Automatic annotation (TrEMBL):
<protein>
    <submittedName>
        <fullName>VacJ family lipoprotein</fullName>
    </submittedName>
</protein>
<dbReference type="InterPro" id="IPR007428">
    <property type="entry name" value="MlaA"/>
</dbReference>
<comment type="similarity">
    <text>Belongs to the MlaA family.</text>
</comment>
<keyword id="KW-0449">Lipoprotein</keyword>
<dbReference type="GO" id="GO:0120010">
    <property type="term" value="P:intermembrane phospholipid transfer"/>
</dbReference>
<dbReference type="Pfam" id="PF04333">
    <property type="entry name" value="MlaA"/>
</dbReference>
<dbReference type="GO" id="GO:0016020">
    <property type="term" value="C:membrane"/>
</dbReference>
<keyword id="KW-0732">Signal</keyword>
<feature type="signal peptide">
    <location>
        <begin position="1"/>
        <end position="30"/>
    </location>
</feature>
């Protein structure tokens, strides 16, 4: 007989995934529970040549030779391991289930988004973030659904690197990090703070390694599966895949920092292209 029982994340995983499959295979519930196309724009048209020609701030790449080597390493790792796993994930998990998992992960990030909304002094966006978390955590069945978007509270992203940008901290040179990909010194610093502030970081420290790896692998697969088709088309149409990714990364970050408002640093076209690609940098 057990005197005590400490339920860990891995204890819930079979239940959670079973619930996802139940909803995803039942059309009458799935339609009202999640929208498989939400947050994914599949009707994109990318003029890669125009993206490649964007040079302004995108060209600040003083260690390009080293960056290209790391980029090639990451790309090989992606094509050899991560991309096949993402394809397998797509083949096994129905679209409704994948959307539910993505919604759940987005909901877990909401407290961090709220903190950065407040640090940036944006009370309106903070209010939307708080409402999204409350609605999706309850009516959205612990975040697997996204009824908040249907009610007009659209999801937005904020991170500490964006907060640093609002405070005037310069971006710095373009850096390709092993495993993590495109970044800058400011973005790297922001990622460290965001990791420390994430609610699961502290909870998972109390769990065993299996729980931590399960969460990390799931988050990575979800992000990579979402980009399968888009990155394939981007690479196929790029004259220089490295330059294209570098420019799109810069445009995406500028877009996020300015909350979607075009700036002098990026053309409206390139901003739209970065949005369509939905790069999760």
């Amino acid at each position: 007989m057990y005197h005590t029982m400490k339920l860990k994340i891995r204890s819930y995983l079979p239940i959670l995934f079973a619930l996802i499959f139940i909803f995803s295979m039942n059309d009458s519930h799935a339609d009202s529970f999640v929208d498989p196309e939400k947050d994914i724009d599949t009707n994109y048209a990318v003029n890669i040549d125009e993206v490649d020609s964007q040079n302004s701030t995108n060209g600040y790449d003083p260690i390009e030779t080293t960056n290209r080597k790391i980029f090639a390493f990451n790309d090989g790792l992606d094509k050899g391991i991560l991309k096949p796993l993402a394809k397998g994930y797509r083949a096994i998990v129905p679209s409704q289930g994948r959307t539910a998992i993505r919604n759940f992960l987005h909901n877990l990030e909401t407290p961090t988004v709220l903190i950065n909304d407040l640090l940036q002094g944006n009370s309106d966006r903070a209010g939307i973030t708080l409402k999204r978390f409350m609605i999706n955590s309850t009516a959205g069945f612990f975040g697997f659904g996204d009824p908040a978007s249907d009610l007009g509270y659209a999801r937005h992203t904020e991170d500490f690197a964006q907060t640093l940008a609002v405070y005037g901290v310069p971006d710095g040179p373009y850096i390709v990090s092993p495993f993590f990909g495109p970044s800058t010194p400011r973005h790297i610093a922001g990622r460290i703070v965001d990791f420390a502030a994430h609610p699961l970081t502290w909870y998972l420290q109390e769990q065993d390694s299996e729980a931590r790896y399960t969460y990390g692998i799931t988050e990575t697969l979800v992000a990579r599966e979402e980009l399968l088709d888009i990155l394939d088309e981007t690479e196929a149409n790029s004259t220089d895949y490295y330059v294209t990714i570098r420019n799109l990364y810069r445009q995406r970050r500028i877009d996020e920092i300015n909350n979607g408002v075009p700036s002098d640093e990026a053309s409206e076209y390139s901003i739209d292209t970065a949005r369509d690609l939905n790069l999760v940098f």
